[in-house]
Amino acid sequence: MYNLVSFAGIFILMLVAWVFSADRKVINWRVILWGTVIQLVFAVFIFVVPAGSQVFLFINDAVVKVLDSANAGTRFLFGRLALPPGTKNEMGEESLGFVLAFQALPTIIFFASLMAVLYYIGIMPRLVKTFSRVFTKLMRISGAESLSVSSNIFVGVEANMTILPHLGGMTKSELCTILAAGMSTTASNVLALYVFILHGQFPTIAGHLVSASILSATAAIVMSKIIMPETGKPDTLGIDVSPHYEKESTVIEAVINGANEGIKMVIGIIALLLAFLGLVALMDFLLSAVGLRINNFAGLQMDWSLKGLLGYLFYPLTLVIGVPPSDAFEIAKLIGERAVLTEVKSYQDLAALLASGALKDPRSAVLAAYALCGFAHVASLAIFVGGTAALVPKRTKDISDVGVRALIAATLACLMTAAVAGTFFTGSSILYR
């Protein structure tokens, strides 16, 4: 029954996007059709076809092995602080418990360097180009936005550097698409952080997050083209575009530059968490003070925290994507929390729910993992709008105009990804064990 609910949820989410559309009369049905088909075919391959499941598990194991290698540096630098909970080092010293700053965040630096090396030797450009061709030919969108969306499967805000020569001439619809793709996908170096947080309670999380990022890229195109339909004629419509990037002179330079970019990302994440956690704590204090009086006066038992209020907002959409009612409010609160506190805090709370056994259905954890896999939050809006505007200052107004719509499209794209996964996932699947 829940699989059917998830399947229906795909189209309900499109209807929600249509409500927010800038022009409800101009919809590119080819984009919607092919975007939906691509997601469903990919999900069938992963969840239903035995060979696809094996590919999924291979990717999951490979990511986990690479992550283990990444921990070598953190253990050398931070000693016991870097040991995961419940483990010991060679000298028999026990872990001091989970410390985000010393155990998880340093993996971002390692993965940033690894991605830089993969770009240097030409593996990543070929992968990006392959995805770009699929999007351009099947959905008939512009080559520039296809390339940017494809790049976002593997990297973050820097993906728009690959289309720098084309940014100045993009239509508003194209700008909305590249922003939505950036906020609905997850950079591979940050994906490693989520794997580190959840792997203990969710052994196959790495494979799910990789597939979620691929699905979300396609979902972002669908949602953005509904919310901001194309009314102009893109310069690169139906044309393959080659990535624009500066290649390092040596592999050592690639490692150094990747590590430096990783450090910048770690500092950015730390700054956002410090600022937003503090601000939300202050807001929760004020809301709870008012809410307590309202509860006492009206005889209510409402959760007046920001997380709780956003949970009420996302509760209907959580049911729509196929989360069982027994867990729906807990998952809705995580999705609401992601909107203001970033997905890092939400994944931490998901890990805590799994560790405590609070979720009654394994389906809930899988769908939550997909729904949370993206940068669809307020802080990300500032990062992607500001970062893209810095590349083309003359388009700052247009980029700012489509920013909020892109965030809505990204949020719905992440939910759509969860609904697609929920259409084929069953509790007995080997992809959860």
Describe this structure in words.
The protein is mostly helical and 433 residues long. The chain has one domain (2-424). 72% of the residues lie in helices and 0% in strands. The protein contains 17 helices and no strands. It has helices at residues 2-19, 29-47, 50-78, 100-104, 106-120, 123-139, 143-152, 164-167, 172-184, 188-198, 205-227, 251-298, 306-320, 325-356, 362-372, 378-391, 396-424. α1 packs parallel to α11 (205-227), α1 runs antiparallel to α17 and α11 crosses α17. It starts with a helix and ends in a 9-residue tail after the last helix.
Low-confidence stretches: none
Please, how many helices? 17
Q: Could you give the count of β-strands? A: 0
Strand content: under 5%
Helix fraction, binned, reads over 70%
Order of helices and strands: HHHHHHHHHHHHHHHHH
* Biggest sheet statistics: none
The chain-level mean pLDDT equals 85
- Count of domain modules: 1
Distance between the termini: 22 Å
- Class from secondary-structure proportions: mainly alpha
Radius of gyration: 21 Å
* Gross geometry: globular
